[in-house]
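Troubleshooting log. The previous run stalled partway through. Resubmitting the same two chains, unchanged.
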Amino acid sequence: MSDVGYVVAGWSITAGVLAGYWLWLRRRTRHAERFDRDA
Amino acid sequence: MTLLKPAVGRALGWAALAALVVLALFGLWGAPPDDVQGDAQRLMYLHVPAAWIAYLAFGVTAFSSALWLWPRTRAAVWDRIAGSSAELGVLFTALTLMLGSLWGRPVWGVWWAWDARLVTTAVLLFLYLGYLALRKVPAAPEARAKRCAIAALIAFVDVPLVHFSVSWWRTLHQEATVFDPELKANIHGVMAFTLWWGVLAFTLVYVYLLDRRYRLESLEEDLEQRELEQAIAERVAGAGTPGRGSRKEEVPVG
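Second attempt completed without errors. Output:
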């Protein structure tokens, strides 16, 4: 793999990890809020 | 149940996203390739900020844990901040290791080396994974917070070991880029700007995610407490009703 390949992989994985964590947080928060309202 | 006002939190989220876009523009196109490492050095604009944010996150965890342990400042808020920040620290440490590995392959020729910086960073990751596991062990809130606060302070001892490992031992990892031991900057111009911008962007991301994670932690703790109270109420009501598990019913007759 060329240097550019490593760079693209690194930036893509970072973007994916941050976006994935944010989505996971949002989903769990909405789930908890729903339970909170129903309780 | 958030650290920031909702409007401030939302504005911070957009500011963090905009800062990341600008970082990508400078990191991938604006900054020139390195004379020695070529384009592979562009991973530095993520790797170094991720490592700094990991230090910051674990620093916040240690500081909040100390505030929880100090009787005058003891409050549930510090335990929640400590747990939320530790999770983010683990996330950014894992990113640091992954990015370092991707950077090491073209520059060093290996994905991993048993080098002091790499090993102490991996130990840091596992220490705080253990801390997060400890937070999941069922216990009374006070007992859990106390044991986690002590564990966080012990784990934090590894942070200075990670940082100074490149000065204290002979390592494959390069020494500090921004400030060497004489506090002299070894990076200039657009490259320095991009690196500092990366630190700013990741700091915004960290503060935004900490606020979001704190809200989730608060909501889940409240739900857990409510479920516990409900279970106790049902148990008490059940104990008072004949035929539903009372001691009298369990005695065999005949």
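Takeaways: Chain A has a mean pLDDT of 92. The two ends of chain A are 54 Å apart (CA to CA).
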